[in-house]
Amino acid sequence: MADTDLSAQIKNALADVEIPGGGDLASYGGLSDIIVTPGAIAFAIAVAPGMEAAFGPAREQAQQRAQALGGARKVMVSLTAEKSNAPKFGHGAPQPQGKTRVDGVKRIIAVGSGKGGVGKSTTAVNIALALAAEGLKVGVLDADLYGPSVPKLLGIEGKPAIRDDGIFTPHEAFGLKVMSIGSMLVPGQAVVWRGPMATSGLRQLLRETDWGGLDVLVIDLPPGTGDIHIALFQQTVVDGVVIVSTPQDLALIDAQKAIDMLRRMSVPVIGLVENMSYFIAPDTGHRYDIFGTGGAEQAAERLDIPFLGPIPLVMSIREGSDAGAPPVAVEPNGPETAAYRSIARRLLARVP
Ligand SMILES: Nc1ncnc2c1ncn2[C@@H]1O[C@H](COP(=O)(O)OP(=O)(O)OP(=O)(O)O)[C@@H](O)[C@H]1O
């Protein structure tokens, strides 16, 4: 059945769901679009602040109706309450209330960037592998809704398994437990996963996955600063964020914005990684500082955050990434692996 037909059928079924104060859910103004993908159904019910509990039974029934029609798809129905007074953040502001840890995950490290295409996902995956090489149990959550590339980087295909109780069983690759928001999307559909939909999707991937006891979960964030970041940092204890930048100035200015946001939200910045920092000639092994290296290190100093290290621009990183064979896993003795491992060790020194 076409996704649009199923979406319409679900909406019809919601006409039987009564909401507090009278009326039915299908005609309720707070019901979002119903998004249907090959693996998931997602929609949100926006309610007035304080009405979350009253709407609980309606959400439950909506979930059941959608599940009955959706077959094996994972159903995500979220209740969202718009806060009338948006929280204010500032330097040294108290942590927003309600941040919790994720069951079975000791530490969460997020990897972000000011802009896209700087190699954030590549860095996130290889840092995760480098942490695993230190003997830690590591997972990766790809939260980059607008360009989920972790499955390709780790050679993962298909959807994660879902247990009878609705909990995801993550993929496994090179010893990592892996979940990607990409497996819930169909190409071109990311744009409709806005606001509450995207954030509730992320929340479920994070909290309804059997991570099986991790020392560290590495989250690959979308580039920039958006809804996903704000929701994650408000709801979940993130132990620190690594910012990836390239040496070019523009990327650094964008990185600065990301760092400002983290400070305003009282999320610790672990440090800055300079990706594609210098070029190693494959034939001679010579190093060339093609962009004038050191920009990120100086920027880190200026911003008063630690510099975690440079990663070279090397063909093997690109080729290995495209082939689902990340260098840290497949070339444990290569120079690029040494760069990632040194960054991982500096990172560990900053996150207890
Ligand atoms: N150090 C590197 N050397 C060579 N190529 C690299 C390096 N880092 C990343 N790349 C390549 O650059 C491209 C972009 O990398 P990646 O997808 O990790 O970026 P991103 O910042 O996550 O992008 P997006 O914002 O689109 O998610 C990929 O083709 C990747 O293989």
UniProtKB/TrEMBL annotation:
Q: How does it assemble?
A: Homodimer.
User: SUPFAM superfamilies from the xrefs?
Assistant: Fe-S cluster assembly (FSCA) domain-like, P-loop containing nucleoside triphosphate hydrolases
Q: Which residues bind ATP?
A: G114, K115, G116, G117, V118, G119, K120, S121
Cited InterPro entries: FSCA_dom_sf, MIP18-like, Mrp-like_CS, Mrp/NBP35_ATP-bd, NUBPL-like, P-loop_NTPase, YlxH/NBP35
The answer to whether UniProt assigns keyword Metal-binding to this entry is yes
Give the Pfam families listed for this entry: FeS_assembly_P (PF01883), ParA (PF10609)
Q: PANTHER family annotated for this entry?
A: IRON-SULFUR PROTEIN NUBPL
Q: What does this protein do?
A: Binds and transfers iron-sulfur (Fe-S) clusters to target apoproteins. Can hydrolyze ATP.
Q: Which UniProt keywords apply?
A: ATP-binding, Hydrolase, Iron, Iron-sulfur, Metal-binding, Nucleotide-binding
Q: What CDD domains does the annotation carry?
A: Mrp_NBP35
Where's the MIP18 family-like domain? 8-78
Name of the featured protein: Iron-sulfur cluster carrier protein
One GO MF annotation is:
ATP binding
Can you tell me which family this protein belongs to? Answer: In the C-terminal section; belongs to the Mrp/NBP35 ATP-binding proteins family. In the N-terminal section; belongs to the MIP18 family.
